[in-house]
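can u pls check wat happens w/ iron/sulfur cluster
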Amino acid sequence: MSELLFARYAPKNLEPVNTIGAKWARLLDALELAPTVKDRSVCVKMHLGGGTGFTTIHPYLARVLVRKLREAGARSVFITDSPGAVAAAVERGYTTETVGCPIVSLSGLADTFAVDHPVNPPLRDFTSVAIGGEIIHAEVLVDFSHVKGHGACGFGGASKNLSMGCVTQKTRGRIHALEGGLSWDRTLCTHCRACAENCPNEAISFDDQGTFEVFYHNCKYCQHCVLICPRKALAMEGGGYRDFQRGMALTTRAVLDTFAPDRRLFINLLANITIFCDCWGMTTPSLVPDIGILAGRDIVAIEQASLELIRTEDLIPGSLPPGWELGGHGHLFERIHAKDPYAVIEYLHEFGLGSRDYTLREID
Ligand code: SF4
Ligand code: SF4
């Protein structure tokens, strides 16, 4: 049974001291950071978003975290993400001035500063991952994640922030590739070209006969094309999302293995819970009201609690994209994306990374 701290977004009254900004500071005090970070270098892994997507973690929350880490005696603190996200972070308000510490690419400017680590156990030919050098060389990891939906695996939280977020683009592509390849149904396709126009990597084209082609060198297996196709003419085939989830869990384990268990902190923000991942580079309505912030030292527990706090009955009317409806059964994310979001938690638990049982200690 793991204990998680929980700061609820909803205030009990309208005094500023009872709102989330003040509770956030109290939550960090309750985490007792000093034994973990004193005299050590601390990397804060965030997803800084992209494009016009600004429903990521607000710079204010990052700034308070950085200040608390420093007050607890951290020797150095930096925020890190992939090279592209860091280069464009200023567009969404993240600068050294706003967050209070350097923002550095985890794998260098050219995405080549990385160290290969084995995955254990291997999944077919998925035997190693290239983890960003700045992650490897830090002494303490703060996994500061924004929880949201995800088309490829149901949801993105602490595990996705580490697995897809702490590795090079090449490794990221290999994790996505565990899902398989794209199939195209010519009989359904109207050649509207929405897939090609919305592929963030210009990987899709049509030949002279109108046949769909993918340049897999560029494809990141993000499935934007699958989801945007109005005719459902595209599908991702292969090992499926469960292999993708398992690959994420294996990579999460590889990243966490580079830090001693007492030098890992997990913080999940459950606000602006959008339908898709921040990597889509756009802002859409929140699916449910803002819930709060969870923090703890057990990645399994924090992922489990995050999903359990997101309830189908809280779905905000009008928050789904036009024409979308809830399907099937299960968790809200499963009814939207048809992927069991608990799968990655099952694998993280199988790999001994934590407990699915937890208690919540609410920060008043
Ligand atoms: S979005 Fe779908 S229907 Fe449109 S061109 Fe692409 S595959 Fe065809
Ligand atoms: S999966 Fe993503 S990167 Fe690959 S072709 Fe589709 S939209 Fe482009």
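The first helix runs from residue 20 to 30.
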